[in-house]
Amino acid sequence: MAVTADAPLVTEGEPSLAEQVASRRWYHTIRLSDEVTSPGWMDTEKAAPSMPWPGDLTGKRCLDVGTFDGAWAFEMERRGAGEVLAIDILDEDRWDWPPIVDPASRAGIDAQKGQGRGFAIAKRALASNVERRDASIYDLNPAEFGTFDLVFVGSLLLHLRDPILALSRVATVTDGSLIVSDALSARTTLTSPLSPTFDLDGVGRPYWWKPNLAGLRHMVKISGFRPVTRCEPFLMPPGPGHPRPPLSQAVRSRTGWELIRSSRLGDPHARIRAVRTSEP
Fold it and tell me: What total number of domains does the chain contain?
């Protein structure tokens, strides 16, 4: 079932931009006006300058995969892209949920996604020309989507059962560069720095594979790309909307510790840029 949320917002007696932003939970931090910034779970605005952008994007055709609130799509447009397509699955039933889903996790993610309402608010506030399409990364193919000078995949591979298949689909529509910014296993990066190693979750929530640095680089390489930057670790900074649970929650569960860490220090991520290659 396709769900769209790009229709114009209510105009007669509508709430102000600040009221619209305050009415929902945000995943991305996006500066929407001089006075209003979305209170994202992650501060993508702060992280954007350090991404390995491939120089000038003026006139380029770009794709943002798993756009959510649209921060990376709007950033590419801000950097001069001539055309930006953003894809996402708006119907949460079509996500890569594990067989047994934790109801609280499902409710929390559904509320934050809100079938893409944040993207619609941001697009209008920014007077953006970014086009959003309801599609999965697994759907990508050049016959339907064409090809792109730059593809951005941000914090998405973590949520996919088959990230290699997903990146292989991305390769079919990439004429230029791929940027991947995704969750990193700090533990296996420290314990197995030279071997592609992964943490596997898939218990109750759509969190699947979390690679170490060598693992993310290898995933990109075997999916049809040649890395052109090193796979670099960084902390995705917490945004103003990130909850700050008490430190006592850290001792209760691994999930509690992860939330404590990400809310105070940032979430371990890695970033890499690559180009498509036909070489093995």
Answer: 1
Tokens encoding 197: 């190693």
Can you say whether residue 194 is alpha, beta or left, with left for phi > 0 and alpha for psi between -120 and 50 degrees? Answer: alpha
**C-alpha 183, offset from chain centre:** 10
pTM of the prediction?
0.90
84: CATH = 3.40.50.150
7 occurs within a structural domain: no
For residue 60, give every residue at least 6 positions away whose Cβ sits within 8 Å of its Cβ, in sequence order, or none. Answer: 76, 80, 81, 82, 83, 149, 150, 176
> In this predicted model, what pLDDT tens digit does every residue of 169-198 receive, in sequence order?
999 999 999 999 999 999 999 999 999 999
Q: Is residue 176 part of a domain?
A: yes
**What sign for the dihedral angle of Cα 31, 35, 38, 41?**
positive
User: What's the CA gap between 191 and 205, in Å, rounded?
Assistant: 26
CA 173/CA 143 separation, integer angstroms: 9
Q: What would the pLDDT profile of 93-110 be if each residue is shown by its tens digit?
A: 899 999 988 888 788 777
Q: Are strands 148-154 and 131-134 parallel, antiparallel or unpaired?
A: unpaired
Task: Show the domain range for 120.
Answer: 17-276
Rounded CA-CA distance 165/48 in Å is 27
Q: How many CB atoms lie within 10 A of CB 271?
A: 22
Mean local confidence (pLDDT), 73-81 = 98
